[in-house]
Amino acid sequence: MTTRILMDCDTGTDDALAIFYALSRPDLEVVGVTTVFGNTDVAQTTRNTLQILDLAGRADVPVARGAEQPLVGQFTQGAAWIHGRNGLAEVALPAPARRPVDAPAHEFLLEQLRAAPGEITLVPTGRLTNIATLLRKAPECARLVRRCVLMGGAVAVPGNVTSVAEANIYGDPEAAAVVFDSGMPITMVGLDVTMRAILTEAQIDRLARAGGRALEVVGTVAAFRVQSYKRRDPRIGGCVIHDVLAVDVAADPTIVRTQRWRVDVETNGAHTRGMTVADRRPHTTAQPNADVGVEVDAGRFLERFEERIMTYRET
Description:
This protein is an alpha/beta fold. The chain has a single domain (about 5-310), classed as Inosine-uridine Nucleoside N-ribohydrolase, Chain A (Alpha-Beta Complex), CATH 3.90.245. It contains 12 helices and 11 strands. The strands form 2 sheets. A 9-stranded mixed beta sheet has the order 3-2-1-4-5-6-11-9-10, sandwiched between helices. It has a two-stranded antiparallel ribbon with strand order 7-8.
């Protein structure tokens, strides 16, 4: 059975790997990709998305450019330390062969969801600004989504921007609050599970040596992330591929074990802004709104990632 997905990306290094991976899976149909600011500005994330799709031989997948700024405040900087200044580990790719569609991301999302109610899974791997904008303009879309499998948040582990906040949620907590409060079915693939599924340097080396420009880019991007992590926290010992795991969960929910909890997003705290607060009390009366990933079958996930990415090999 094929799952139809719409990816919403701030295309940096792990978003690029996630796009490659999604396109490689025969059980996934990528209906389109919308872009948002985050790892770098939206002009660059849009360019990166188009370039990755060109490299994957999938210029048929439509791309819609999305939000330049969060719902509140201004976007001030990306994450060059982990994604490079161009968002793709300084890899130089040919200019895109096409332009994004004319419609902005939220209108493109609305069009796709209305055309296939209940059939499309949203897979946001960046700030949730586009999804929140869609919900503010057309709240009924929460009922049209099959599921929203989002990469973001942290419940029982530290954040990666502040002590409690993960980057995608921290980058636009007001948008995240809109999404979690929308009533749409949500699976949260946060740092609780993504930090347990780490691509090893041996796996990266195999990919880089397999042959073909696509795998060369995959290897370069992954190796860049490894070196970045070594500078920040050498204990990690590999490449965390957060966004790829969200794609995998969209295709195969059994790869993670989840708990159904009420998740609220902190938008005000001086020290807790961007925190995803899960009500884990056993006798709470809070209405749950998300299935939160708490455990991952890392071995099965990483083996499957390597197997599918190897299909880009040129012999």
